[in-house]
Amino acid sequence: MRFDLPDTAEQLRSEVARWVDRRVPARGSTSTFSQDIWGEFVHIGLLDPSVDELHRCVGLVEACRHGMCGPVLEARLGVLADRSGTAERALAEGRVVTSVAPSPAGATLVGWGSVADLVVDQPSGAVVSHEPLPAVRMALPMPHGWYQRGVAATTDPLDRERWLTGAAIMAGLAQGALTLAVEHTANRRQFGRQLASFQAVQFPLAECKILVDGLYLMVLDAADRADHGTQDRVASALAWLAAVRCAEATTRACHQAFGALGFCLEAGLVQLTWGMAWLRLTNATRTARSYLKAHRQRPEPGAAPGCLVLEAFDRSDT
Amino acid sequence: MHLDFSPEQQGLREELREFLGANLPPSWVGVWQGPQAQAQSDMVVSLMADRGWLTYCWPEEYGGSGGSIWDQQVIQEELFAHHEPRGSQYMGVNWLGPVIMQFGTEEQRARFLPEISSGSAYWCQLFSEPEAGSDLASLRTTAIRAADGGFVINGDKVWTSYANSAEHGFLLARSDPQAEKHRGLSVLLIEMDAPGIEIREIPSTIGWHRLHSVRFTDVHVPASCLLGTLHRGWDVAMAALPYERVGNARYARTTRMLAIADALAGDPCDPGDPGDAADDRMVETLALGRMAELLNYRAAAVRESTGLVGWEASAAFAANALYEQESAALIERDVGFMAYVANGDPHALVNGELESFAVRQAPTVTIQAGSYQVQLSIVGQRGLGLPRAT
After folding, report:
1. What is the pLDDT of residues B145-162, one digit of tens each?
2. Residue of B282, B291, B293 with shortest CB distance to A215
């Protein structure tokens, strides 16, 4: 049992942290997309298919503390889906690559679709657009786009990557939201005291800290398993379900701690919680639940049940 | 970063499972379920001591086997998963022993540590009082210096587990009533059969002889009972409590109970069935369980690397509590009132294992080890750097 990260992962984490603190505004920005910052993010290399999952996830958690600077998950899945290499080359040039998740026929939302240079269909791997998609109207100016899917595509060939990458991004967003809420409740005074000195405020934030830390550990564990091929799909699906739980709790607690300010763009919180909503409202939860239910391993009659969670699932899931 | 046990530790786990399968009676659901349970616990403790498993990770000089903290984690998981057959012995291994190693005199170490290692003596923790629960420093029991250098103890302790079977007590009492409340406290290691100690069971729904009150009336103990520095008992108690949190593998029992409940549910579910909400809850609860496991491992890793128990142990204990209570609610929903049929009734599910877990243990987890709210305070202040909250 080793908890220390490899030196190279620690170094990557530090470098990404410095870039985020220097270049990605934590608050005060009303823009949800910058081509320059997206290009810099891509240049770091976290979406490069050759990067191992542990390094990728360590970097993504750190990179998303101030919000998603573009279609992080969609670009990752788009590059994986497109076997022609077109998406990977476009991404390497700093262009905006996004992708369409499996969905029923009809209009479907595509993350950062209205600023995309290239759109890949995840189920088929086909490039379906070389230009921006029609913009979606939303309260927060997220540059998402509309795509009209002709035929339903509901199976997800990239489920493990979606769960793991999504959970890593979620961990970063949740960490960021919690950091903002802690800072706000330590600084703001009501009834002559710091907000954070009220148990009713502090306890939910402490519960979020437990969930955020726990999610981070689950992401690193699943990433390590993905690199070594041991129950990585189970671990990734579990991490995703934990990410959704963490996102719901963190969103609720942080907005409550901020009050009305939490819904103002200048506070920076809403960009993070909308990012969490964008991720958690995908169909990844349904596929993760289905996968885990299908791979439950009930003890044989008369056999002793195990006491560790991974023992509850079969080991042939890699 | 690699969060798996080694093949050797997996081997130890298999050995423990085989041992427990062979030596625990099918009706075993914990030491608080009937008067015969203590004798069964004694037998298992004795066999474990013979194998060196009781204090496996203690230093060899104190009767241990020099095992790693991860070996000990495996032992804790397997024993907690089987309703802690060591009974009160787990306290000796987890926190009493380490605290005596840290604060005890040579004489105290020589006397008490081999007893714990061999499983030959039982302990109870004498902290809570009628007016001092989570606010432990408000305790009123006094231990006043006598003319011979010893102490005279007067007062009442309450909610004491194992008081009926313990030979020794780990007592926190007020040795200087004039001092500020966190000062003027001392820890005494006392004999529970001393004249003037009156033990009374508090009947409860959560187990046979589970809770007791202990009254001290002019109980005289020698000066050699003092653990640590006079009037600095708060430091000793605060050193003890985190050990209680870090050694407590409650999540392992929860996962085993979910597996048992799941097996009762019958055929594996159809993953495409949109109506299987109970199975959705099961896998989501297991995700919380995996989180609890990893948070407990992190707390153990902190202890391994620093030698200290940090706020991470409180985070782990709180996660255990969330997982345990969510799982108990899930079991209740799935099996209905059958969850309330206890060991000894011929219709009890799995000899009453689910009842013991869901009805007796899980509801109390949030009031143990200082209470869930105390864990959140520790996480808030030490983990997030927030101010003390009221």
Report:
1. 999 999 999 999 999 999
2. B291
Q: Where are the alpha helices (DSSP H) in A86-231?
A: 86-92, 159-187, 199-228
Neighboring chain B residues of A226 at a CB cutoff of 8 Å: none
A194, A309, A313, best to mutate vs chain B, most B CBs in 10 Å: A309
The 3-state secondary structure of B74-109, one letter per residue = HHHHHHHHCCCCCCCHHHHHHHHHHHHHHHCCHHHH
Q: State which H helix or E strand residue B258 sits in.
A: helix B250-264
User: Of A63, A243, A251, which Cα lies nearest the Cα of A170?
Assistant: A243
Choose among A6, A9, A289: nearest Cβ to B280.
A289
Q: How far is A261 from chain B, CA to nearest CA, in Å?
A: 20
Instruction: List chain B residues with CB under 8 Å of A299.
Output: 259, 263
Rounded to 5 degrees, what angle do the CA atoms B115, B116, B118 make? 65
Strand partners, B2: A2
Cβ within 8 Å of residue B144, ≥6 positions away? B151, B152, B154, B175, B177
Helix (H) or strand (E) holding B124: strand B123-126
**Helices A199-228 and A232-258 sit at what angle, rounded to 10 degrees?**
160
Q: Is the pTM of this model over 0.80?
A: yes
DSSP assignment, residue B332? Answer: H
Contact check, Cβ <8 Å, B271/A290: yes
Long-range own/partner contacts, residues A88-97 (CB < 8 A, 24 or more apart): A88/A49, A90/A117, A90/A118, A91/A42, A91/A47, A92/A42, A94/A35, A94/A38, A94/A39, A94/A42, A94/A43, A96/A35, A96/A38, A96/A70, A96/A71, A97/A71
pLDDT, one tens digit per residue, over B87-105 is 888 888 888 999 999 999 9
3-state DSSP helix/strand/coil % of chain B, to nearest 5: 50, 15, 35
Q: List chain A residues with CB under 8 Å of B81.
A: 307
Q: Which two tokens stand for residue A198?
A: 């009220």
The 10s digit of each residue's pLDDT in A104-153 is 999 999 999 999 999 999 999 999 999 999 999 999 889 999 999 999 99
The reply to whether residue A213 touches residue B315, judged by beta carbons under 8 angstroms, is: yes
Count of helices and strands (H, E) across chain A? 10, 7
The tens place of each residue's pLDDT in chain A, 318 residues long, gives: 999 999 999 999 999 999 999 998 887 676 779 999 999 999 999 999 999 999 999 999 999 999 999 999 999 999 999 999 999 999 999 999 999 999 999 999 999 999 999 999 999 999 999 999 999 999 988 999 999 999 999 889 999 999 999 999 999 999 999 999 999 999 999 999 999 999 999 999 999 999 999 999 999 999 999 999 889 999 999 999 999 999 999 999 999 999 999 998 889 999 999 999 999 998 899 999 999 999 998 777 677 889 999 999 987 765
Mutate to test the interface with A, among B9, B284, B296 (most CBs of A within 10 A): B284
What amino acid is encoded at B212 in this protein?
A: H
- CA of B218, closest CA in chain A: separation in Å? 40
Do B268 and A298 touch, CB atoms closer than 8 A?
Answer: yes
The tokens for B293 are 């496991």
Both tokens of B329, joined, read 């609610």
Chain B residue with Cα closest to A239: B287
